[in-house]
TrEMBL record:
This is DUF4956 domain-containing protein. InterPro entries: DUF4956. It comes from the Bacteria. Keywords: Membrane, Transmembrane, Transmembrane helix. Coiled coil: none annotated.
Length: 211
C-alpha cells in the first residue's frame, strides 16, 4: 500500500511539474524580454526621475501597478489581434479610472500617463528589443531633460500668510518681494494676492521662486 501511494504521489508530482513547464512554455522569451524592458524603464522613470525631483513616494504603488496591469492586459489582447485603436482606447480608460474622484496634481497625472504609455508601448510594439529599448530611452531622456534646469529654470510656489498689508499695493510690489525674500530666504520673483482680511490686517499670498 505504501509503495502504491509513493507511485501515485510521484505521478501526481510529475503531472504538476509538467503542467508548470507547459505554463511557462506558453510564455515566450519575447514576453519576458519585453517585461524586463518595461520594468527597467518604469523604475528609471519613477525612482531616478520622479522621486529624485519631487521626493514623493506615495504614488509608487499606483505607478507600478498601473504600468504592469496595462502591460499584461495589452500584451494578452495583442495576441487576439487587438487593433492599435483599441489599445489606445484601453490607455484612455485606465488613465481616467484612478483619479475620477481624487484630486491629483498635473505633474503626477503626467507621470501616470507616462508609466501607462511605457506599458502600452512595451506590449504592442512590433519591433525587436533593441527598437523598444531605443523608444523607451528617447521617452526617458526627454522627460529627464524637461525636469532638469538645462532648458528652463524650475519655478516653485508656496502660499504664505502675510501681515504687512501696507505693502500689497501695486506700486509697492518691489518692496513686497524684497521683504518676502528677507523673511523666507527664497529667491522670490513674483507674487499673487489671494485674499485680504482687513479685520486681522493679514493677506494670503502665493509666492513664486526659483531654486
Amino acid at each position: 500500500m505504501t509503495i502504491l501511494q509513493q507511485v501515485t504521489n510521484l505521478d501526481t508530482l510529475q503531472t504538476i511539474q509538467a503542467s508548470g513547464f507547459q505554463l511557462f512554455d506558453k510564455l515566450s522569451t519575447k514576453f519576458f524580454v519585453r517585461l524586463a524592458i518595461d520594468l527597467i524603464s518604469t523604475t528609471i522613470l519613477v525612482r531616478l526621475i520622479y522621486y529624485k525631483t519631487y521626493q514623493k513616494s506615495e504614488q509608487f504603488f499606483t505607478f507600478f501597478t498601473f504600468n504592469i496591469t496595462i502591460f499584461l492586459i495589452t500584451y494578452l489582447l495583442n495576441h487576439v489581434e487587438m487593433s492599435m485603436g483599441a489599445a489606445f482606447g484601453l490607455f484612455a480608460v485606465f488613465s481616467m479610472l484612478r483619479y475620477r474622484t481624487e484630486s491629483i496634481s498635473t505633474r503626477d497625472m503626467t507621470y501616470l500617463f507616462l508609466v501607462i504609455a511605457i506599458g502600452l508601448l512595451s506590449a504592442v510594439s512590433k519591433g525587436g528589443w533593441d527598437e523598444l529599448s531605443a523608444l523607451n530611452f528617447i521617452l526617458l531622456s526627454v522627460t529627464a531633460l524637461l525636469e532638469s534646469k538645462w532648458l528652463i529654470k524650475k519655478e516653485h510656489s508656496k502660499e504664505v500668510l502675510y501681515e504687512n498689508i501696507d505693502l500689497i499695493h501695486a506700486e509697492k510690489r518691489k518692496e513686497l518681494i524684497e521683504d518676502l525674500h528677507l523673511r523666507t530666504g527664497l529667491n522670490v520673483h513674483r507674487v499673487e494676492i489671494q485674499s485680504i482680511d482687513f479685520l486681522k490686517d493679514a493677506t494670503r499670498i502665493i509666492i513664486y521662486y526659483f531654486d
